[in-house]
Design a protein that fits this description.
Structural class: alpha+beta
Protein name: 3'-5' exonuclease domain-containing protein
Distance between the termini: 36 Å
Largest sheet: 6 strands, antiparallel
GO molecular function: nucleic acid binding
Shape: globular
Number of strands: 10
Organism: Rhodocollybia butyracea
Number of domains: 3
Strand content: 5-15%
């Protein structure tokens, strides 16, 4: 990849050698973020940054790169590649170096379990008290053999334990057990104390993330609640006598979610993100029915999958953003309910004063129909069948 590009640049320019090349794929694999170091830059960007890196094949294979004057398209192509590479480096470099679990590693520490060859991640979990068990929340290699605190000659695999979540007693000093922040929080910006909501919408989280998140017992910040009433107004803010003209020029929901900044220390941040997602994206009834039928066979529920494996759900189910008359009151209720709720530790509300201004603008977009899907336009297409999930 990059070292091959540097060697080619040496040949074409007659200068060099160019030292210091870092293979990002290898770097990411060493941190157990990917399984194949040969991944392309665009795929690595999608996997780790959740961003699309456009690749114009015409520019890529062009013979005009040796020209003294490059086109704007070539400048843009090179700039995007360089910027994406820099962002990937910072993101990967910000992750703590994986290290083995020891007898003093505290409970609730996120860990990964490696396969016997120490090259692939078999599963993810959280250390459970008294640090002799792990609560499994994700499995990647169901056939991986587990070294357990058990007698006998049988060596069970992950598949033998059934579907996650489950608790498993494992040899803590096993070299296959590594401390790793697998939870999906926005580690690309770890120095910040805030996440955009987009970092939380389609991520999977361990059970420990939800243990301190209790909506019913959360106290409400009255000052924040007053801001909600003053700025958001009534949930019935749509005037029934005024017909909303459905625009075909709409606001991308990806950017809407990234408009909202939430403290990453607030216990309710993930529940809020999921509530807003579920209010905004309505699953296709037939797709949902088919998925429910398959989940029933596996002993799983729709609610469990949405909470812990939402990415899998949305790869198998089409969804739509409803018209303004349905969307506006739905997301208004979510903002009004969650925004004033205090964090149990810090005592701070979920929404800051600037966040209230942002969600007011989002509601205005919803009121005018700029968030809803255009009518009578199909926004989905089938990319294949998942034969590991009953042909969904």
């Amino acid at each position: 990849m990059v070292n091959a590009d540097l060697r080619q640049l040496e040949t074409l320019s007659g200068k060099g050698p160019f030292w210091g090349g870092l293979e990002l794929g290898t770097f990411a694999k060493q941190q157990f973020l990917i399984s194949d170091a040969r991944i392309s830059l665009s795929d690595l960007t999608a996997a780790l940054l959740q961003k699309c890196l456009p690749k114009n094949q015409t520019e890529c294979i062009s013979t005009n790169w040796v020209d003294n004057e490059l086109s704007k398209g070539q400048f843009d192509y090179a700039a995007r590649d360089a910027y994406a590479s820099l962002m990937l480096f910072h993101m990967i470099d910000s992750i703590p170096i994986p290290k083995p679990v020891t007898s003093i590693t505290p409970s609730e520490t996120p860990v990964i379990i490696l396969t016997d060859d120490k090259k692939k991640v078999a599963a993810c979990g959280v250390l459970s008290p008294p640090r002799t068990a792990i609560s499994m929340v994700l499995m990647f290699h169901h056939g991986a053999i587990m070294k357990l605190h058990a007698t006998g000659t049988t060596k069970p695999t992950l598949h033998d334990f059934g579907e996650v979540p489950f608790d498993m007693s494992i040899i803590i000093h096993s070299s296959a057990l590594i401390i790793h922040p697998f939870s999906g929080t926005d580690i690309s910006n770890s120095k910040s104390d805030e996440d955009t909501l987009g970092a939380l919408i389609d991520s999977s989280f361990p059970q420990s993330e939800f243990m301190s998140a209790d909506i019913e017992s959360a106290d409400k910040d009255e000052a924040s609640a007053q801001i909600s009433r003053d700025s958001l107004g009534s949930r019935d803010g749509l005037n029934p006598s005024v017909q909303v003209i459905q625009s075909r020029v709409v606001k991308d929901p990806f950017h809407v979610f990234h408009m909202i900044y939430i403290s990453r220390t607030h216990a309710l941040r993930i529940l809020f993100a999921q509530a807003l997602r579920d209010a905004m994206f309505i699953p296709h009834p037939e797709d949902k029915r088919r998925v429910l039928d398959w989940l029933k066979v596996k002993g799983l529920t729709w609610e469990f999958m949405l909470q812990y494996k939402s990415h899998w759900v949305w790869r198998h189910v089409r969804c739509t953003i409803p018209p303004a008359e349905h969307l506006y009151p739905a997301i208004h209720d979510v903002f009004s309910k969650y925004g004033p709720l205090k964090d149990a530790k810090t005592g701070l509300p979920l929404f800051s004063s600037s966040t209230w201004k942002t969600v007011k603008n989002i509601l205005e977009l919803a009121r005018n129909g700029y968030l809803s899907d255009p009518p009578d336009i199909s926004l989905h297409y089938c990319v294949g069948l998942d034969y590991q999930a009953g042909g969904l």
